[in-house]
Amino acid sequence: MSLAQLHHTSPGPGLAAVSPRVPPGIRKTAEHLFGYVPPRGTPAHPTPAEVDRLPTAFSLTAMEDGSLLLSHTAPVAAGGPAGLTVHTHAVHLPHGAALPDDALPVFCWGAPQWARTTPEGGVPKPVAAFTPARELSRGSLTQFAATRTPWLADFFAAIRTLVTDPASPPLVLVERDPVAVARWLALAATALPPAEAHRLTFTTYTRVPAHGHRIAGMLPEDYAALDDPGRYRVLDCSAAPPPPRPVPDLWARLCARVWLAGAPRLFKETAHSPEPGCLAAAAVRTGVQVDAEARAVAAAWIAAAGPAVGQSQLAAFVTALSAAADQSDPVEAPALTGLREALRGRLPAAQLEPLTATALTAAVRTDMPRLPFLYAGDLGPALRDRLASRLRSDIRRGLTDPDAPPLGRPLALLRIAEALGVDHADLLPELTSRAARAVFADPEAAASIDELRSTLSGSPSVRNAVVDRLDALAAEDPAAGSRVLAALPLEVDRFTAPHLLLCSLPVPEGDRVAAVEGLLRAGGLSPMTAPEALGTAARRVWPEAPPTGDEARRLLAATGSDTHRTACTLPLLLRAAFEARPDDREAGPLATDLLNSFAPDLTPHDRAALDLLLYTDRLGTPAEGTEWVRHLTAHTSAAAPLPDTLRTRAERALAHRLLAGDSDDIAELSDLARSGDPALLAAYAEVAAEDPTVQRLRTDPACAAARFRDWSSHPGATPAWDETRLTLLTTVLRPVVRTLPAEEVRQIEHLLAAHRSTLAEEFRAANQGCLTRLTRGLTTRGRRRGTQS
């Protein structure tokens, strides 16, 4: 069946010939489309020879109804009013229709079926198909591509933009010969999927791009005279080649490499898939030289394709990729490993061996975080030995890399070192130590790391080394050891990991000293034969707060100091003494036990702190001596820095002693007043204002009299003392006295008068809120906020 045709000869009115099947609307539009403007510099009346040299315009134009008009416009003779006769022969392709045999429009260029004259009788001669011109043969196009190497990738990137973004600017190809433009178009049409190639509109020659052509060929002199070249994307092949620059579009780079390799058949072979990976895989398999990104994309595509790729093609691809891969490229390395994992079981080990070696080498040399796993039989002995020799320095360097996460790449390298037989025993202690510390720092995160799980399950020597380090850390921090065992499936026993074993057992309830013994017994351990386990058990029973004084004394007595010395529990026992509650009466005896049992082991600081604790406990006993403030201050200075609990215990003990009873301790109180020590005075004021002291003031007139005497003494000794005593007089004593019965108030006055007659008078005045020589100078600075006077 003949194609629907149109003929137009200019100058001349209307169409010279048209097939009946061409719709009227197309005929009318075509009359305005067909035209020809010769290149700049063409003589007004060219000679026949000059006419022969004028360019032909070969175009594919989209019509409003979605149909296409494929046209051939050629100057055919000199003469006529315009000095030139031009004939246009066109073929109309209705919407959705294609050329015979699905020929691509551009390959109709130069076909002998294009007429250069009006058909006789005004009836188009039948045209069933077009014969491709030899200028567009595969060989000619391959040679042409080689001559345009500097522009090739940029051209395909522009083509990709044209077909994916209809709003993108048209592409202008500047060539000295429109034949070259036709060849550019043929390169593009061959690479594009057929549906896109069929509708990519173009013209091989024009003076000014028009009619919506997506690609337009121009001569250099016409392009130079273009009014607004910025409206177009331009590829000027008439100028010097551009400097090399990267082209981001992978598909564009692939098309360029395929054409330069003379392998355009790959475009047809992969036309079923629009993904660049399919074309990249075909290129790699057939030996086309492509870059690392293309090889990586090809590997990923093959890995995901599954059974869609036949065994023979798969084997050929693996062989070609293994030979071509860049074993130092960080982009390609992960793809090689992923492909190798995907093909396990699909190809025999012997066929997969080159890829295994390539992937392993690339992964090791590119510092890839996740390394391939080697299974038994993956590598033959000869290749394994070659890899061990080739990768030894890289593996050992990676094992000692301080910047690598200890639970990731180093452990995977360790597994590879074992599989290849690379010596690493000298590096194992530091490596496993780093790994164990990382596990302890975040057990839950560690449990999610494949390399660690593989190491613990697949390498006995490394597993034992890691567990040994974990056990040592568990002895120092049993709570963390318990978290490790909760996160990781470790099997431990009392011989290989006694501390981890203790961390895995529940702590018995009830008496905590008995709980230590019960925990050891449950683990099959004895403090006599495994004294170091005692420390772990004790730290499990007392994970945060230390034992009480009584518990610490019983724990020490149960096994003796030698066992505790080996178990390194002295710090725990010292904490029990230093952090004991103020009402813990066993803290002092514990201090004595520690001084007697660990004399050679105590630091000067520890000894001074224990001495302070003993002195604190002597206050209020016959052994207290005198000059309490001086002695307490001396002990405190020697033991600095002090734990807060011990400092508070000492300061409050002195305060309680000064506030105890009604005996005459005026000299000791004088020392406190004259010291002006803020901490001692604050503790004194705090204890004086507490309920037990206030209750004694209410119920014991002698106590109330003694406190008035104390808080009225030594005025002006130090500003801090004045503020403290006056605050206590007004905020503690006065409110109590004002609530007492008159008889008890008179009893207090009597006791004060017995001490000194003027004291009773001062007491009465102070109780009434009057200023006296003792309370004069009292200001709001000496009252608590909100206190009633």
Protein model, in words:
With 789 residues, the protein is an alpha/beta fold. Helices cover 54% and strands 6% of the residues. The chain is built from 38 helices and 9 strands. Helix 10 packs across helix 11 (292-305), helix 25 runs antiparallel to helix 27 and helix 28 packs antiparallel against helix 29 (604-618). InterPro entries: GAP1-like_C, GAP1-M, GAP1-N2. Residues 141-238 form the GTPase-associated protein 1 middle domain. Residues 5-125 form the GTPase-associated protein 1 N-terminal domain. It holds the Pfam family GAP1-M.
Task: Based on the model shown, name its key terms.
9 strands; 6% strand; elongated; single chain; disordered C terminus; alpha/beta
Number of DSSP strands?
Answer: 9
* Major sheet size, sense and barrel closure: 9 strands, mixed
Q: Given the helix and strand composition, which structural class is it? A: alpha/beta
The number of distinct helices, counting runs of at least 4 residues, comes to 38
Please tell me what the overall shape is: elongated
Which stretches of 5+ consecutive residues score pLDDT under 50? Answer: 776-789
Q: Strand-residue fraction?
A: 5-15%
**Rg over alpha carbons:** 50 Å
Strand order of the largest sheet: 2-1-5-4-3-7-8-6-9
> Could you tell me how far the N terminus lies from the C terminus, measured between alpha carbons in angstroms?
122 Å
Overall pLDDT:
91
| Helical coverage, percent range | 40-55%
